[in-house]
Amino acid sequence: MNSRLNVHEPAALDASETKTSGGLSPLTIGNVEIGFPVVQAALSGYSDLPMRVVARRHGASYSVCEVMLDQFLLSLTKRQKTKHFLDIAEEEHPVGGQLMGAEPEQFSLGAMKLVEAGFDIIDVNFGCPVKKVLGRCRGGFHLSQPLVAIEILKRTRDIVPDDIPVTVKMRRGIDDSAEARDQFFQILDGAMDAGLAAATVHGRTVVQRYIGPSRWEFLREVTRHVSGRGFKILGSGDLFTAEDCLNMMEQTGVDGVTVARGAIGNPWIFNQARRLANGQPLLPPPTLHEQAAVMREHFDLCEQTYTVERAPLLMRKFCIKYSQNHPQYEQVRLAFPRLKTRDDFEAALAEHYAVDGPGRYIPRELHGSQEEC
């Protein structure tokens, strides 16, 4: 398995700040018991019900749905084509609903839609770096306007019932300026004062998007900043292997980590992290038959969540990601972009997965193509 990149190696932590991989504390957010502190992040266009359920079955103790706009939630109906956005499987609790928007009042009303749908935690997105999102004063744009950001957090916390935790997703700032750093901590303090339970912090700036390393040392500063206040910090950024997940917790003192791009087509990462945390040796990567079984499981869930007709189209992107575990990835991936039927899917598996053989851990460089919000 690929080892973590050296670029993340900060100076050694004090003994009091270090968490050993064999003794991870169970994660609790507000009054919601999560358990094992390696969870699945919100992934725009990916972390729908099927992906979340597959992750849950493979060791993810918590997951967050793909981000939804407040305007979209307020106009959402029970039509077959859109109702799946708020579907939650009984087996996936606890599960978080993530929200993005621009106006404080509309934002809080959108949060109530997620509450009514049954999400256990409401997560506010102040981290998305996508250009069209920033241009509409959403996502990461809020890190540049602390007063509006804090007002959104206050209104959301006020309208959401007390027994449902509210959390926030942030990047380390809009950019690397001193002003951006001050704004980050102003918003973080505002989140704690407003009664939020946790923050997920990505170690890159909004302007940086996904270029260059995620600064894990910044996460260590954040955990020190909130120390003693009962406020949980989850780390995010460059978590592509089980070792990455445990290394981030050990080196930064975060209470948990959220796996984003590293979980697409790779639900095995969660049980791999559990094994390492328990002091067990890492198993070989999933074999071709094991990969095919999970792909079929995912396809079944997709058919159940959407329709038999829509599932093949929606599975294309997932199958391409799963194929990264195949030693002949460059060839295998070509079988999936034009899936139209379940028969097409089964034919692709028959061609490339019928004969069992060893899989591979996904090369780190292949994780760079998907942006998460």
Kindly describe this structure.
By secondary structure, this protein is an alpha/beta fold. The protein is built from 13 helices and eleven strands. The chain has helices at 49-57, 70-75, 104-117, 131-135, 146-159, 178-194, 216-226, 242-252, 268-277, 288-305, 311-322, 329-332, 342-352; strands spanning 27-29, 32-35, 38-40, 63-64, 68-69, 95-100, 121-126, 166-171, 198-202, 232-236, 256-259.
Q: What is the strand content?
A: 5-15%
Helicity, as a percent range: 25-40%
Task: Characterize the main sheet.
Answer: 9 strands, parallel
Average of the residue pLDDT scores: 88
Terminal-residue CA separation: 27 Å
Total helices: the number is 13
Topology of this structure?
Elements: E1 27-29, E2 32-35, E3 38-40, H1 49-57, E4 63-64, E5 68-69, H2 70-75, E6 95-100, H3 104-117, E7 121-126, H4 131-135, H5 146-159, E8 166-171, H6 178-194, E9 198-202, H7 216-226, E10 232-236, H8 242-252, E11 256-259, H9 268-277, H10 288-305, H11 311-322, H12 329-332, H13 342-352
Parallel strand pairs: 3-11, 4-6, 5-6, 6-7, 7-8, 8-9, 9-10, 10-11
Antiparallel strand pairs: 1-2
Helix pairs in contact: 1-10, 3-5, 5-6, 8-9, 10-11
Spell out the key features of this protein.
two-stranded antiparallel ribbon; disordered N terminus; 373 residues; 11 strands; 38% helix; nine-stranded parallel beta sheet; alpha/beta; single chain
In brief:
This protein has 373 residues and is of the alpha/beta class. It has helices at residues 49-57, 70-75, 104-117, 131-135, 146-159, 178-194, 216-226, 242-252, 268-277, 288-305, 311-322, 329-332, 342-352; strands at residues 27-29, 32-35, 38-40, 63-64, 68-69, 95-100, 121-126, 166-171, 198-202, 232-236, 256-259.
